[in-house]
Specification:
The protein is an alpha+beta fold and 150 residues long. The protein has helices spanning 2-14, 23-39, 43-68, 79-96, 132-140; strands spanning 102-103, 106-111, 115-117, 120-122, 127-131, 144-146. Helix 1 runs parallel beside helix 3 and helix 3 (43-68) packs across helix 4. The relative contact order is 0.11.
């Protein structure tokens, strides 16, 4: 169990780009850790679980770093997680670099998929001003796109 996780982390360390991590490889580890948590409740097993959590956190941090440095996303099990982080990076950079129209701390956006906001149905093509925290959630959900300064 630990050898597999160490191998995955080492492989990620050795490569400049994101490695593809298959979910079926990880499910065995997840299942083993879940059984370990249920079966034992003592200090030695708590330390063992903690060491796995630290390795997993290191893997997560390595992968985030690669995404933030512009590594291409692959078909790994965590593609959706990393895609959201990449979207956050793009929004952050675009917002602070003046790429979006901003009025009263809100970003001008175009609706691309219908959704309800404050009891009003917004339709594709509608233009709305939204606070940045809503912009992030709605972009990642596929409802809006910020209007960019050209």
């Amino acid at each position: 169990m630990s050898d597999e996780l160490i191998s995955i982390v080492q492989n990620e360390l050795d490569k400049d780009e994101l490695t593809e991590i298959r979910l079926d490889k990880l499910l065995k580890l997840v299942d083993s850790l879940r059984k370990l948590r249920r079966r034992y409740s003592d200090e030695i097993h708590d330390i063992e679980i903690k060491s796995f959590e630290e390795l997993i956190e290191s893997l997560f941090e390595l992968r985030i770093e690669k995404v933030l440095e512009g590594s291409k996303l692959n078909d790994s099990f965590d593609k959706q997680f990393l895609s959201i982080l990449n979207t956050m990076r793009v929004i952050y950079i675009s917002f602070l670099s003046g790429k979006y129209y901003i009025f009263n701390d809100k970003i001008l956006c175009k609706v691309v998929s219908p959704f309800m906001r404050k009891g009003v149905l917004l339709s594709p093509g509608d233009i709305v001003l939204l606070p940045i925290h809503e912009v992030l959630a709605l972009i990642t959900s596929g409802y809006i796109t910020p209007i960019e300064v050209v």
